Amino acid sequence: MIYDLIVAGAGASGMTAAICATDADIYKQFQHKADQTRKRSVLIIEKNKKIGKKLYATGNGRCNLSNSSFRLECYNSKNEFFPYKVIGAKDYQIVNQFAEQLGVAVSDEHGYYYPMSRQASTIVWAFNDRLKKNQIQVHTGEIVIGLEEQSDHTYCIQTDQGHYYARNIVLACGGAAAPALGGTDAGCSLLDQLGIPYYPFQPALCKLQVKEKMSGLAGVRSKALVTVMDASSEIHAQEFGEVQFTGQSLSGIVIFNLSHTAGEMLQDGESVSLCLDLVPDINEADLYMHFRKFRTNNPERSLQACLNGFVHEKLATYILEQCRWKQERISELNDVELQKLADQIKKLTFHVTATAGAEDAQVSRGGADTRFIDPETMKLTVQEHVYVIGELLDTDGICGGYNLMWAVITGMKAGFSIYDSN
Ligand SMILES: Cc1cc2nc3c(=O)[nH]c(=O)nc-3n(C[C@H](O)[C@H](O)[C@H](O)COP(=O)(O)OP(=O)(O)OC[C@H]3O[C@@H](n4cnc5c(N)ncnc54)[C@H](O)[C@@H]3O)c2cc1C
User: Fold this and answer.
1) Integer angstrom CA distances of residue 121 from 57, 149, 174, 297, 335
2) Which residues, judged by CB distance below 6 Å to any ligand atom, belong to the binding site of ligand 1?
3) How far apart, in whole angstroms, are the C-alpha atoms of residue 224 and residue 347?
4) Which pLDDT belongs to residue 35?
5) Which DSSP category does 110 fall into?
6) Which is the CATH superfamily of the domain at 2-204+360-420?
7) What is the pLDDT of residue 271?
8) CA 98: distance to chain centroid?
């Protein structure tokens, strides 16, 4: 038998593509074209024993599906503008409507969208039911290991259990993050077999390990404007948010979002520091003046008390340890030392030694070189019937639903292109 389509990988992107390639109602709703019902034979091959394993873990089990806020920093790719040829500011509505088409009510939490049930399993079950309704075959526990174009332009797909033939192939193998949930770089070896260049996967959306010893800060959370800088203090990225301190690393959404840039710089051999402004609402001169006033009004109070007016007490202790001063009372500090104190709070610096490993990352940076992908259809520009979608592409989003949006939108584009094909 020759399938119309074989999809490698039953994650969000692969299942979306399979459904959009077969579903007349979805085609009509989203393509706004007259019904041209097609019967497509589709097989999905998934190496995990269950479909959508990673989806269950998304958004801490709640599945942050999409986000209404959209800016140029939402996606990273070596091909800088490629993501924005694929996805646009209003596409969160398409993703939400797609979920609703599958029977999942979606609700808005300040622009972050989740299934109304707040259960990621709701999404997986909805995918599962639609795959069944559309008579899409699913082989789980089977690994795609090779693919080859035949002389008649069909493809032979080899798995660890046999081989299959198809007119169209969708590669939806995801990235290498979270191997316990299916993360692998197997997709890159399939790209390799097709002669498609790719960037090897590296962890992103992850903690950053730092050189400084800060066991005393474990468990502290603090809002900060975080700047990623190189050795010459050139700014590479900046974001405001809550930093979480662990024994040896910095974490939190703001750090996750900066981990792509930091990881890329480390890979290029650059030294990377994170400069934390713990009081971004006050400029350094005003902070210094505040400390002077504090010294005048409260000469007997401790340095710790002076700092603690602005930052968490454990951060105050840490900052004073870095200063290595013998003085204990604020009256014992001179103006230069007060200036240094203000400087420490505005520019608390940590030196990044590594990103967390793939097992602790939410996504991978790297993947298929997108210069070889048509952004309208996600089709390879050099092979007529092969599509690459989702995290296997060299595009990764920041936290907040952007990666699932990417998986669904790229899956829809590939699926509709296959639905349209003769
Ligand atoms: C803990 C965690 C929480 C997250 N939370 C969110 C969130 O709330 N919002 C958000 O937008 N993003 C989130 N993400 C990221 C998001 O889940 C992924 O970017 C997205 O699921 C990628 O979809 P995909 O279909 O491209 O890849 P995947 O979901 O990784 O699916 C790829 C599938 O292909 C299978 N596969 C791989 N190789 C083969 C092969 N050779 N043969 C057969 N099958 C194969 C894999 O087993 C896997 O099931 C989170 C990620 C993690 C790890």
Assistant:
1) 9, 37, 19, 59, 59
2) 8-14, 45-48, 53-54, 57-59, 63-64, 143-144, 172-174, 177-178, 181-182, 184, 186-187, 362-363, 390-391, 401-404, 407
3) 10
4) 65
5) T
6) FAD/NAD(P)-binding domain (3.50.50.60)
7) 97
8) 21
Give pLDDT tens digits for 374-398: 999 999 999 989 999 999 999 999 9
CB-based burial label for 71 (10 Å; 0-12, 13-18, 19+): exposed
Looking up tokens 């951060």 gives 315
Least confident residue range of 24-33, 34-43, 118-127: 34-43
Residue carrying the six token digits 């989203």: 30
CA distances in angstroms from 65 to 145, 239, 367, listed in the order given: 30, 22, 22
What are the distances in angstroms from CA 109 to CA 25, 94, 256?
29, 17, 20
Using the structure block, give the residue that is written with the tokens 């924005």.
84
Average pLDDT, the chain: 96
Q: Which two tokens stand for residue 148?
A: 């080859």
Tens of pLDDT, residues 20-36: 999 999 999 999 876 67
> Which tens digits make up the pLDDT trace of 265-320?
999 999 999 999 999 999 999 999 999 999 999 999 999 998 988 999 999 999 99
Indicate which atom in ligand 1 lies nearest the CA of residue 66: 11
Q: What distances in angstroms separate CA 34 from CA 30, 420, 421, one per listed residue?
A: 11, 12, 15
Residues sharing a CB contact under 8 Å with residue 93, sequence separation 6 or more, in sequence order: none
| Bridge partner list, 45 | 8, 139
Overall average pLDDT of the 30-58 stretch: 90
Give the pLDDT score at 142: 98
Cα–Cα distance for residue pair 138/50, rounded to 1 Å: 10
For ligand 1, the distance from its centroid to the CA atom of residue 218, given in whole angstroms, is 30
H-state helical runs in 177-283 = 186-193, 253-267
Mean pLDDT of 182-198: 96
Cβ contact 167:41 at 8 Å: no
* CA pair distance 45, 142, nearest whole angstrom: 6
Q: How far apart are CA 45 and CA 308, in angstroms?
A: 57
Exposure string over 309-319, b if 16+ CB within 10 A, otherwise e:
ebbbebbbbbb
The full set of domain ranges for the chain reads 2-204+360-420, 207-356
Q: Terminus-to-terminus CA distance in the chain, angstroms? A: 18
Ligand 1 atom at minimal distance to the Cα of residue 182: 47
